[in-house]
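---------- Forwarded message ----------

FYI, see the RNA polymerase sigma factor RpoS record below. Original note from H. follows.
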Amino acid sequence: MSASMNRRDSNCCTCDEFAPLLTKWRFRGNFRTRAQQLVQGEIGYIHDPSFSRLSYDDVRNVPDGQPLFAERDSGIPASGRNRLPIYLQKLYEERLLSPAGERHLFRLMNYLKYRANAVRSALNPDNPDRACVRLAEALLAEAGAIRDQIVSSNLRLVVSISRRYANDRTQFDDLVSEGNMILLNAVEKFDFSRGFRFSTYTTHAVQRHFYRQIKVRHRKATREATLGDSLMADAIPMPEGEDRRHRLAAQVNRLTSRWDECLNDRERQILEARYGLNRSEKEWTLRELSREMGVSKERIRQIQIRAEEKLQEFARREHLVPELDEFSV
């Protein structure tokens, strides 16, 4: 079948156009259930006007003379890779896509989803055509395999960006995990027809997300350090500045993870509101809390002081406050 194929045949479920895919992908289960899952699900793709004129044979192969993979690997040198966890080192065994290979895979992936959506739209879930169910599933499975290939070739990009933003191993692992989710979303949203490299598009998306997350964490650490000043500053000599803020925040993190053991619900609610440690991240005034809880401002202040004293005592009893010499200057 050529690019001039008849449009009325574009949704054919029994033609030979996709025979290789039907052989490659086989699924089991009740056809009616499978058809219902197809009809109820959404198939998102980036449309291209040429799709209606093209056959699978027109898009399945990389254009002549253009390589799928990049000839040179511009990743982290071997010495740098050795400092990464083993599971991340394996990412560098995946070959990078060439610009032509990248365009080809995105075009093919979206074309397959376009064709799958056309087949799905014609399905009757109560009396499904079995050939159409099989074809729609095979098209989506092949599109998913191509998506996975694109993702695998770009995972190292997320690692590289995460290394620039992370301050420690825990934060690095968190950023890699979050960056991978941004990468998966970027694959679904990238418009291959606009001429940009996917790596450029993804880098901007990941960096924007990291920047927002770091701002949120910075605000949270500042609020935790404020509470830490109230609870522990007199008990522990600490250096001033950013180092002090991070150390106090770390201690408050340890405390808040266990403060259910020493505070009642009202005490915890008041501390969370006063220091902005709840989901809203808003620091409530005594007046706002008194209206919300139906008691006087003075009563709110008394409960806050009592809760802070209980936390101080709990921290000492459970050895959550480091020894004095650990933080001596």
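H. also flagged this: The chain has 13 helices and no strands.
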